[in-house]
Design a protein that fits this description.
Strand order of the largest sheet: 2-1-3-4-5
Strand content: 15-25%
Low-confidence stretches: 314-318, 356-363
Number of helices: 13
CATH topology of the largest domain: Heat Shock Protein 90
Mean pLDDT: 80
Distance between the termini: 49 Å
Oligomer: single chain
Order of helices and strands: EHEHEHEHEHHHEHHEEHEEHHHEE
Shape: elongated
Largest sheet: 5 strands, parallel
CATH architecture of the largest domain: 2-Layer Sandwich
Number of domains: 3
């Protein structure tokens, strides 16, 4: 158990260290909140013992600042003899428990600290589950919006052609519009497949881990090898690729959808796809660039800015793929955006939490 004690009174520090020693525990010490936050950024601590009244912070604001800066750390607040109410209020602000300095329990101190850590772990799991469920509900609502447009429009086209046929359409007319109906039907099946992929994914089970993003990129390329070969696509990888932390299956799905989107060019154009990595504002970055029809600059800016913005026609035939990308990136608390000009192709960028990021890499032109 790796502990950090943030306390500015030398006598209280000695008192607490003796109580910990009797339980065969030790703590690193910091004499101010600023110093404590610095130690937390440099070390992997399990729990913080926090005095509320420090030279640079006092009262409940001390807990708020610590929980904002280090939300993953369990916190046990240290109060004075007459601060019982303050200790309970600190729990409401994010602490897991509180101890009265003059009443440190020798026999149960270790157990109290372990229970505080366990409560923090349970809280974080519940918070992650709630965030995933909220994200899932938002995406289902957004998908319903996409589907209402992307299914209604092609069905209207099919209905129009069928009405023409029942009204006595000629064989020549049928032959002319039959390829369009077949293409529309395939796109509708893709929409259904994408929605099934989303509904089957359990967002709460897979845990985040440190990943080699280049290995995930190569896995995505391998999964789409048949499609890439069928289109005669030329693909290049442009590193260095950063280490990232996340859920492997969700990141793989982002990359597969973006690569598949890059294949949706005019059949007369040989797809040229570039995949790269680097950093953006200190965050690990991955990008996928294509040589497709592109889109207007304003359309690119709005593509991921609002869940109700319909994708431009140049990328709409990927069904829900881009919406799934947005959902998966947001689960990782990352950012996703596109840059493009009409006739100049498009580049899709997304950031993820870092492992050990690669050095800053110039973004593709």
């Amino acid at each position: 158990m790796k502990l950090l004690l943030i306390e500015d009174d030398p006598e209280d520090v000695l008192l607490i260290e003796k109580a910990l020693a009797r339980q065969h525990l030790k703590a690193a010490c910091a004499g101010s909140l600023k110093s404590g936050l610095g130690k937390l950024s440099q070390g992997d601590y399990d729990l913080v013992l926090l005095d509320l009244n420090l030279t640079d912070s006092s009262g409940l604001e001390t807990v708020r600042k610590l929980c904002r800066r280090a939300p993953q750390i369990a916190v046990v607040v240290l109060t004075g003899l007459d601060d019982d109410a303050l200790g309970k209020a600190a729990i409401d602000e994010g602490a897991q428990d509180y101890l009265v300095k003059g009443q440190l329990p020798d026999l149960s101190l270790r157990r109290l600290l372990l229970h505080a850590m366990e409560r923090k772990n349970v809280y974080e799991k519940l918070r992650a589950t709630n965030e995933a469920l909220e994200s899932s509900n938002r995406c289902l609502s957004d998908f319903a919006h996409y589907l209402s447009h992307d299914l209604k429009t092609p069905l209207t086209t099919i209905l129009m052609h069928l009405q023409t046929l029942t009204a006595g359409g000629t064989a020549s007319e049928v032959k002319n519009w039959m390829p369009q109906v077949l293409e529309i039907t395939k796109n509708m099946l893709q929409l259904v497949d994408d929605l099934l992929d989303f509904s089957r994914m359990d967002l709460t089970q897979e845990s985040a881990q440190e990943l080699d993003s280049e290995a995930v990129v190569r896995q995505a390329v391998a999964h789409l090898e048949r499609d890439l070969r069928a289109r005669g696509a030329e693909l290049s990888l442009e590193g260095p690729f950063p280490k990232v932390r996340g859920r492997a299956s969700l990141i793989l799905q982002i990359l597969q959808n973006l690569i598949a989107n890059a294949l949706q060019n005019d059949d007369a154009v040989r797809p040229l796809i570039r995949i790269g990595g680097g950093t953006s504002e200190g965050e690990p970055l991955l990008w996928v660039a294509d040589n497709g029809a592109g889109m207007a600059v304003e359309d690119a800016r709005r593509l991921f800015s609002s869940p109700r913005v319909q994708p431009p026609a140049s990328v709409r035939n990927r069904g829900l793929g881009l919406a799934i990308c947005k959902r998966n990136v947001e689960i990782h608390r990352g950012r996703i955006w596109a840059e493009s000009k009409k006739g100049k192709g498009a580049t899709f960028y997304f950031t993820l939490p870092g492992g050990a990021p690669a050095s800053e890499t110039p973004q593709p032109p």
